[in-house]
Design brief:
Layout (H helix, E strand, L loop, with lengths): L1 E11 L2 H13 L5 E3 L14 E2 L9 E2 H14 L3 E3 L3 E5 L5 E5 L4 E9 L3 E3 L15 E2 L2 H4 L7 E5 L3 H10 L5 E5 L9 H8 L4 E4 L2 E8 L5 E8 L5 E5 L2 E4 L3 E3 L30 E3 L11 H23 L1
Parallel strand pairs: 1-2, 1-8, 2-5, 8-19, 10-17, 11-12, 11-17, 12-13
Antiparallel strand pairs: 3-4, 6-7, 7-8, 9-18, 14-15, 15-16
Helix pairs in contact: 1-2, 1-6, 4-5
Amino acid sequence: MTDQLIHDAIIIGSGPAGYTAAIYLGRAGYRPLVITGALTPGGQLVNTTEVENFPGFPDGILGPDLMDRMSAQAKKFGAELVQDDVVSVDFSGDIKTMRTDSGKEYQARAVIVATGSEPRKLGVPGEREYSGRGVSYCATCDGFFFRNKPIVVVGGGDSAMEEADFLSRFGSSVTIVHRRDTFRASRIMVDRVKQNPKIEFAMNAVVSAIRGDDKGGAAEVELTDTVTGDIRTIPANGVFVAIGHIPQTDFLGGALERNEDGTLRVDGSSTRTSIDGVFAAGDNADSVYRQAISAAGMGCRAALDAQAYLVSQDA
């Protein structure tokens, strides 16, 4: 079934990038359609407890509450929200076509892709159970909550080294767990963490389980030696997983050019993709910062780029 209206702008995805883009386009009078996703509109923040580093909330705000406020603000300025998943696209013509999981087809003159990314998971017992209660995928978001507590960082790349160094400001100790005997990270990053007296290493080891305490939070991790198979446990109230992110862009097929890490390629500091009239914002186009506030800022830029494109088409 085809939606008869050709929209000025459709935003695929919600979260800080999608909702901010909707707010800006709505205030500009374009009444954007936001296809939010079927299950959890709001992106990764709906699975986050307290957010303390988003400007304007000195006492913090729960992630789902922040997304509810952004959603309400977008609707206040005329955005229409549809809870569905885009499964395929055709960006070849001036009018872009999107098909959803429910079988509907939508068309628009301009499109903003703001589907975000998902952190790679360990896939071990206890990971899901203690997510948000000890297990985290963002050190800058959650490090503060583990002051003077033992922390584990899982990973061997630059991101893992950066997170371990950052978390050493808070934790009583930080243990980097890596499945090999050498790191993928750059030499300067490895040297930095090795010189940090609060950081220890568990090499040739994988986290095979996460266990909690009677208060409902993470308390320890089970480590399995990748060479000998020996199993041991170490205390960990904070378990930070830093093994990469997966941009949510597979539904696009080959419609847009991507970078080597899978993020959508944009033109310089703009949000313009390889197709005129299609823009990208948020973690699906950002492999560096991946913060709610930077995603919101990119959503603003995408809306302004889309608005400029629509004005040029009407000239």
